[in-house]
Write a structure and sequence with these properties.
Layout lengths: L4 E6 L3 H13 L2 E6 L2 H11 L3 E5 L7 H9 L5 E6 L4 H9 L4 E4 L4 H13 L17 E4 L2 E4 L4 E4 L2 E2 L4 H13 L4 E2 H8 L12 H18 L9 E4 L3 E4 L6
Parallel strand pairs: 1-2, 1-3, 3-4, 4-5
Antiparallel strand pairs: 6-7, 7-8, 8-9, 10-12, 11-12
Helix pairs in contact: 1-5, 2-3, 4-8, 6-8, 7-8
The protein binds calcium ion.
């Protein structure tokens, strides 16, 4: 079953825009480009892309704000491309809705590897794109109903708007219950690597997991002190909070 995957490149620098466009094309994407933040937000809404690369330094709107606006309409995988290597910037970008980031100059091969790892993660099924519906393995925990098949999380009758990364982290905890998952473990999970490979996970990757978990906690309305879902195990990682009876 082959369907054209759509990529959107939001970048004002023509050379980098072309480079990224070529990388995504080679990875099998139908690629669209935008050279300003406002054009990018509009294209994200109209094209419903699978992957977006987002330059943080755009001429009109700040890249963080672009990410926030895109998140209102899209669950695309957002890779931020930043010339600013400061950790604070990358963490702010993740808080604004980015999934991952690369610092310029980056190697095209690295970008392609990130995109392909992401695309190996399961996607939400969507009638509009003709993805076959599979039987949903449903999981429920303390009133939160999660369907791995349709990639939905429903709380109090309302579907939560989670990014793919947030959903994947939630699912990882639901799968292993009270077993503690280290941040490195979860970072590898996001790269779609087996847990026991032991590949290198940087401090920044672990920090990124913390930011995504923080975003997820906010969307769930979960409490750090008395969690219903996301229990922090200080200095180690996370696990699913115990089941409650009410
Ligand atoms: Ca720029």
């Amino acid at each position: 079953m082959s369907e054209a995957r759509v990529g959107l490149v939001i970048e004002d620098d023509q050379d980098i825009r072309e480079l990224v466009r070529v990388v995504l094309s080679q990875a099998g994407f139908d690629v669209h480009v935008a050279s300003t933040g406002s054009a990018g937000v509009t294209s994200a809404r109209e094209l419903n892309p699978d992957v977006i690369t987002l330059d943080l330094g755009l001429p009109d709107i700040d890249g963080f704000e672009v990410a926030r606006q895109i998140r209102k309409s899209s669950d695309a995988y957002i890779i931020m491309l930043t010339a600013r290597a400061e950790e604070l910037d990358t963490l702010m970008g993740l808080e604004a809705g980015g999934d991952d980031y690369l610092t310029k100059p980056f190697r095209p091969r690295e970008l392609r590897a990130r995109v392909e790892a992401m695309m190996r993660r399961p996607r939400a099924s969507s009638e509009s794109k003709g993805v076959p519906e599979e039987v949903d393995p449903e999981v429920s925990h303390n009133g939160l109903a999660v369907s791995a098949g349709s990639r939905t999380a429903v709380l109090n009758g309302k579907e939560l708007k989670l990014t793919r990364t947030e959903f994947d982290l939630l699912l990882a905890l639901l799968e292993t219950g009270r077993i503690v998952r280290t941040k490195a473990d979860l970072a590898r999970r996001l790269r779609n690597e087996p847990y026991d490979v032991g590949s290198y996970v940087s401090d920044a990757d672990e920090r990124a997991v913390e930011v995504h978990m923080g975003n997820l906690r906010k969307k769930l309305g979960d409490s750090i002190q008395a969690p219903r879902w996301l229990e922090t195990v200080r200095g180690v990682g996370y696990r699913l909070a115990p089941s409650s009876n009410n």
